[in-house]
Write a structure and sequence with these properties.
single chain; 9-stranded mixed sheet
């Protein structure tokens, strides 16, 4: 092994563990420096979201359904309502303040949009306008999307339903 120049010093294998220790210490220092520059490692928390009530046409409804009075199968457009959305941490039920809540049409032709931020109680009151219940549909879904730094994005494709009654 020494004849081919693989290990040039004559200490033999005795110097190898010290070299490994030095390499590990330097690699650890570099890793710590990189993590410090990147802000460390953080794991995002999960959120739970609940639509507690809907205000539509001067009435308040518990839950996530917007009841549209339409006995026929015609298209109903210009549907506007207000949704009360609660956002809280999964497991702890602690309110999430400052989360961005967006409600939008999840299906083609449903339209509608509204957004807002949660208060200190985790409540966002969102005015949604421009929704359409397409012809021959019994119901249409609206997507609820919630984002906040430090949390995983929450998406419910059927968070609110517009229902033909």
């Amino acid at each position: 092994m020494f004849k081919r120049g693989w290990l040039k010093d004559q200490r033999g294998i005795e110097g190898l563990p010290m070299r490994l220790i030095i390499i590990v210490v330097i690699a650890g220092a570099v890793l710590v420096a990189l993590l410090a520059m990147l802000g460390g490692i953080s794991f995002n928390k999960n959120m739970d979201v609940e639509c507690s009530k809907i205000e539509y046409n001067g009435k308040t409804y518990d839950g996530f359904a917007v009841p549209v009075d339409a006995t026929g199968s015609e298209e109903i457009s210009g549907i506007s309502f207000t949704a009360h959305i609660y956002v809280y941490e999964s497991g702890t039920n602690k309110p999430v303040e400052g989360a961005k809540v967006t409600i939008s049409g999840a299906e083609s032709g449903v339209g509608g949009f509204g957004s807002g931020k949660t208060d200190e109680n985790g409540l966002a009151i969102i005015s949604v306008s421009g929704c359409t219940l397409p012809a021959n549909y019994g119901e249409a879904q609206l997507k609820i999307e919630v984002t906040k730094s430090g949390y995983n994005k929450f998406i419910d494709l059927e968070g609110i339903k517009i229902v033909r009654t």
